Amino acid sequence: MKLWQKVFLCALFLMMAAIHVVSLVLVQNSQQLMLEREQSRCLESHENLSANLVNRVIYERLRLNKIVLDEETIQEQMELSLAAVGSNTFGAVVYQDGQKLAASGVSIPAVDLPQDFIRKDFCSLRPIEEDGQHYLLAASFLFVEGRQMELYTVSDISEIYTLRAKQLAFIQRMGLIFSCCSAVVLLFLMIPLLAPLGKLNQITQKIASGNYAVRVPEKGSIEFRELARSMNAMAGAVEANVNRLEQVAEDRKRFIANLGHEMKTPLTSILGFADILRISRTVSDSQRQEYAGIIVEEAKRLRALSGKLMELITMGSTALTLTSVSIPDLFAEIELAMRPSIQAHELNFFVIPTHAALVCDVTLIKSMLFNLLDNAIKATQKGGRILLFCTCDAEEEKLRITVRDNGMGMTEETIQKATEPFYMADKTRTRRAGGAGLGLALCAEIVRIHGGNLQIKSKLGEGTMIRVTLPMTPPQIDPPAPSQGGASHA
Fold this sequence. Notes:
Elements: H1 3-64, H2 71-85, E1 90-96, E2 99-105, E3 124-130, E4 133-144, E5 147-156, H3 158-208, H4 222-279, H5 285-314, E6 323-326, H6 327-344, E7 348-352, E8 357-360, H7 362-379, E9 385-393, E10 398-405, H8 412-417, H9 427-432, H10 439-449, E11 453-459, E12 463-471
Parallel strand pairs: 7-9
Antiparallel strand pairs: 1-2, 1-5, 3-4, 4-5, 6-8, 9-10, 10-12, 11-12
């Protein structure tokens, strides 16, 4: 059963129950009021008849000028008095010593009354029922000419119960008619009220089927608007997560493809030239040295590739070893280590440190600087210039380390993809220089886990500037989840 059907039936049931309960209370209250009125009238009629009987006997005794009337005269006077008041709805009877003296009107129902029903000090009243008819029975002692008698009067009140039955039947008919009308009105009111819920259900089904871009219109009542807002927020979060997972999957796929391609090239060369050396019967010394040199160089490139790949994958999976290092000391060590490579390429190298200290993982920061300078050396022609300098922002407590060259530069597209693993703008030149496209990806990850950021500015043919901004004391950076260690950079 659908929600609108449940709401409709519950509302209709509650409405019908309320109407019937209120109607029954009103009918019951009306009957009680009429019953109390009939009781008062019955008591009043009984007392009047009792006084009338006594007065009639006294009047007849005075008229006959007797001291005491005989029983026959008393009985005659009582019969005359009762005959005057008897009717189809009222009756009376007088007993003396268990014998009926006079009676008229409605007969007294044959009911068993308790022995103490009649009291000397007041008139007793009791409702009784016989053969579907309802009566009010009143009784009291009657003292006439020194004789004790019993007076019973009965009033037919069946009309009250008949009226109650008619009212209940009328209520049932009107309740049925009103319920039908209310059902129609309630149905027409409920359809537009619950229409947003149906729309929400349709959109939820679309989201469940994979259409995460759909959104719920935020209109209707406050509750529906809040629900629509929450559903849209949930759909947005799901869409963002799905897009992120799809991007991770795509990056991982590209990462694996690039890895396979990069490993295939040196392995092919190694296997090819090794196979030549194995199967060739006559190999000159110069050829052997040439082939062996190629095998060695390709093996070195494969070793460098695997080393950087492992470093990139495991980056962030272990805690940083933070120590304070002086920037002048750090730059002096970097300059000393890079000087042979700079001289071999006949480049001009300038180092400008600042008097500041940096709290960092020194090994990782050195690796980052080596990679940045190695890229600058590969991109700069003979006689070119490479600059390594550092500035300090004391207010923000940040250091900015910059590596600038006047080499070949990069296009905007290359800048956007430069930190992706295995990306190489000029694959032939990069491989010839011994690169695998992992250096900048590794640098970006080192900067990230230190809480900094890496910025690349470059123009084709004019050179490149890479600026690394690092906090002097890095915050606690959560390492990436193991399942996303490599794919987050792929």
